[in-house]
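Troubleshooting log. The previous structure file for this entry was overwritten by mistake, so regenerating from the original sequence record. Sequence copied from the archived sheet and checked twice against the printout by T.R.
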Amino acid sequence: AVVSTQSTGYYITNNLRVMKLLSVLALLVALVAAQEEWDRDRDGYYRYEDYGEPEGEPEGEGEWYHTEPRRYYTEPRDPRIGRNFFGFSQYDINGMVESYALEGELKYQFIGFDDVMEEILVPEICHITSKNFTIYNNRLLDTFLLEQLEKMSPDCQSFKCDVLHYAHEHGARIFVDIMNSTSMQDAIEIVGNELAQAIDELRFCSCGREFFRAIFRAAPFYNPAAFDEDYGIYYTVARNVDHKSAGRVFDQLIEGVCASGSEGGRCLDDMFDVVGELMDMYDVTEDEIDDYSDGNKKAQRQHQKRCDAFFGVINAFEQAGDDDYYDLEPSDGEDFWHMFFDKVGAGTNALYCAKGCKKQRTRLYPCCMRKMLENNKIWDNVANVIKSIHLIYPVLNDDVEWDGFYERDTYYMSDEDLAEWTAWTIPEDLREKFMKMVHAAKYCEGNIVRCY
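Regenerated output below.
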């Protein structure tokens, strides 16, 4: 028994030593594996092993954050403004777009879009007519919409199909170009150039106008097979919003952007030049906003006089109105919109009317844009659309309900309240504040800003 006990003790002691050794080895292996994982995370290899290293990886140093129970690494800020502004990472883009070479040229396409084009979009958009349409061969169109589209002039009959193929051929490339833009100015220039090219190739200024006229005529009655569930809200809006006025607004805007601009281009080109100028001012403001915020009042006043930044606009916006504005919401009605137009209008007035900056502001005021802004027909039709939306709001908000076949429930909205609501029109002083906001250059005290 003594021998047996000694043998047992020997084996237990020996096994404990072996277990300790194994535990130490396991700990070392875990530490090595953890260090390798740490190094992979730090160097960013985890981003490349599965998805491929993205082209043009941005330079710069990221930061390490130490938290419990783990540490993590943030990537350096990508200088490509398109990715930062829209929140796309290289991983997101790789999941949406694929590249391929065609005749020595790099091409892009949206992943899976070819199948959608071949199986759904081309058969329905390009080949279905009001004659061969059935509820079984189309989910996106209906017979009334097709009939309206077929009233377009012969030269424009293929417009909807042309737009589809143009988007398929150029859409992914345009998306990648915007994502790779390194400044807002660069991104705006890309969008402007691409729109100008599309307008020319697709004859948008003629066929586009016909197309949208057909769309607005058909909108109240749009009923495709895709609406296979309850679309009651859509029909409430579609049947009661003033589509005729909305269509006129859209038609007049197309006419305006297609009108002749400066330097032999279209007004759309001039308007994108304006946006580019504004983006330059935005970049300066963003770069120097900390200096402005940290400076004393004298230094801030000097910043506010500058013509190449928005510091004067920011100050005018902050000083206009009162603090009650921040407690209001659009649903509060006229009180909110009065204060909103006051504050934003003060900002646009500072933009166009600042003393010493009127020469520079000429670049923000194309003559063709002034002509559009002075077209009262546009704003009269906008007012009609707003009025029609105002009338259906109580229905959408469930303030108007029916107890029976003809008796209305007056719990949420009495007859007097409903009568007052339906009698509402846009006040003249509110419309004037709106116009001072959108067309501030016209309302500058003293000399009016010259257009170019």
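The longest helix spans residues 2-43. Archived copy saved in two places this time.
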